[in-house]
Amino acid sequence: MRRKNIKEDILVAALTLFSEKGYDGVGVDQIAESVGIKGPSLYNHFKGKEDLFNSLIEYLEKYYSEHFNSASKINKCPDTVDELKEMTLSQLEFTMHDERIIKTRKILSKEQFRNEKLAKVASTYFFDGIKNSYCAVFTQMVKNGIIKEYDPTTLAIEYSTPITVLIHICDREPEREEESMNYIKEHIDHFIEMYKKSSSL
């Protein structure tokens, strides 16, 4: 019986293998074997390993945008500081437990020094995209009088960077998730205490 989406099956298999062994540690035959096809059959869907890898990055960018980084998810302005905390923890629940996102971070951590394109993708995933999204959030929260007037970009960096570091710790050492989540919650509470307006609940 012919599979409906063998191309996506190949991408998902490649995601797992690249995240575990890195780009140079995986061959086309390994990827093909993991989805139950012969190596040459993979070329019916991709020109070669590099084309497959580039297609995988595009696939993951789309997946990330649809499930996490869309305007409807991260850029919705919280009406209170409590909603800010709730929104952040909801995002963390996804990004720390979704297998495809975890594997994406692992691939980018391994491969960001391999070529310029991946370096830029890594910078977007690990810093620029998060900074820009939270900058939009804090711009509106300042405007709405929920938090004190301060440069939104600085607020975004101060808020998100410690959280990002702790996420990476969990990727390397999953057994430290509870510890990391406690640090994250304490960090969010401290940030809110520092920057909320006295009338903001």
3D structure, described in words:
This protein is mainly alpha-helical and 201 residues long. The protein has two domains: 1-63, Homeodomain-like (Arc Repressor Mutant, subunit A); 68-201, Tetracycline Repressor, domain 2 (Orthogonal Bundle). Helices cover 72% and strands 0% of the residues. It has helices spanning 6-21, 28-34, 49-67, 71-74, 81-97, 99-111, 116-143, 152-172, 177-195. Helix 1 (6-21) packs across helix 6 (99-111) and helix 7 (116-143) crosses helix 8 (152-172). The longest helix has 28 residues, at 116-143. The N and C termini lie far apart (58 Å). The relative contact order is 0.10. The model has no long low-confidence stretch (mean pLDDT 89).
Uncertain residue ranges: none
- The CATH architecture of the largest domain can be given as Orthogonal Bundle
Helix coverage percent of residues?
over 70%
List the domain count as a whole number: 2
CATH structural fold name of the largest domain: Tetracycline Repressor, domain 2
Count of β-strands: 0
Write down the overall mean pLDDT. Answer: 89
Strand percent estimate: under 5%
Rounded to the nearest angstrom, the radius of gyration is: 20 Å
Question: Superfamily at the CATH H level of the largest domain?
Answer: Tetracycline Repressor, domain 2
Tally of separate helices: 9
Which CATH class of the largest domain? Mainly Alpha
**Content-based structural category:** mainly alpha
Largest sheet: none
Please state the overall shape, judged from the principal axes of the Cα atoms.
Answer: elongated
**End-to-end gap:** 58 Å
The H-and-E topology, N to C, reads as HHHHHHHHH
